Amino acid sequence: MKLTKTVWAAVMATALAATSLTAHAQSRKELVQKLVAVQQASLEATARGLAEAPARQLVAAAQPILAQAVAPEKREATGKAVDAEIKKYLDAAGPIVRASTNKVSQGAVLSGIEGKFTDDELKQLVTMLESPVLKKYQTMLPELSKNLVEQAVADARPQVDPKLQAAQENIRKILDKATDGKLSQMAAQAQAAQAAQQGGQQGGQPAAQPKGK
């Protein structure tokens, strides 16, 4: 009888422990979900910044060409065409990057805080109370943001890169047409100069001396 009670007690203890672990996992997952939800505005800003960064680079590259190589009477129309390509890229890439950021956010936050915060500390973070825990979390924000950005970029890149390349090529064609082919000529001259420079560097290297017997 005692053996039966002992076995039953062990079974109950195991079941309770498993239930407790499951409840803990669910509770922790819910806390992370709430933590991500609290930071949704920040996540949106991160995603928007990721999508807009390449667009800013495209604009920065196009502006000098518009100012220096495009005829004055063509600048306004050419600028509008470039703006349209930038908008087309942002309209296509923005939702992709935003979806990727939302997709990886929970895993990125969970992996970043795993083992560093208890459930009670997570509850304090979610409620955004003024506490040393909040300061502790804030010191980790750069690392969490870095991890999130890396994962979001890796997830979105296969879909975004073709759109970015298409935008670059379309803008190049717009500018090349507006400059009557000068952009292509400048690119060809730059490539030729680079090839000549590399050839000169290789030709200027001293020949290897034969080893004496």
Notes on the structure:
With about 210 residues, the protein is an all-alpha fold. It has one domain. Helices cover about 85% and strands about 0% of the residues. The protein has 6 helices and no strands. It has helices spanning about 1-40, 40-70, 70-115, 120-125, 130-180, 180-205. Helix 1 (about 1-40) packs antiparallel against helix 3 (about 70-115), helix 2 runs antiparallel to helix 3 and helix 3 runs antiparallel to helix 5 (about 130-180). It is elongated, with a radius of gyration of 29 Å. The termini are far apart. Residues about 1-5 and about 10-25 have low confidence and may be disordered.
Offer a few descriptive terms.
213 residues, mainly alpha, 6 helices, 0% strand, elongated, disordered N terminus
Label the structural class: mainly alpha
Could you state the order of secondary-structure elements as H and E? HHHHHH
Give the overall silhouette.
elongated
Major β-sheet profile: none
Residue windows where pLDDT falls under 50 for at least 5 positions: 1-5, 10-26
What Rg is obtained from the alpha carbons, in whole angstroms?
29 Å
Please give the domain count. 1
Mean pLDDT: 77
Percent strand equals under 5%
* Gap from first CA to last CA: 96 Å
Quaternary structure classification: single chain
Number of strands: 0
Signal peptide: 1-25
Region (Disordered): 182-213
Protein name: DUF2059 domain-containing protein
Biased composition (Low complexity): 187-213
Q: Which helices and strands occur, and which strands form pairs?
A:
Elements: H1 2-38, H2 40-68, H3 72-113, H4 119-127, H5 132-178, H6 182-203
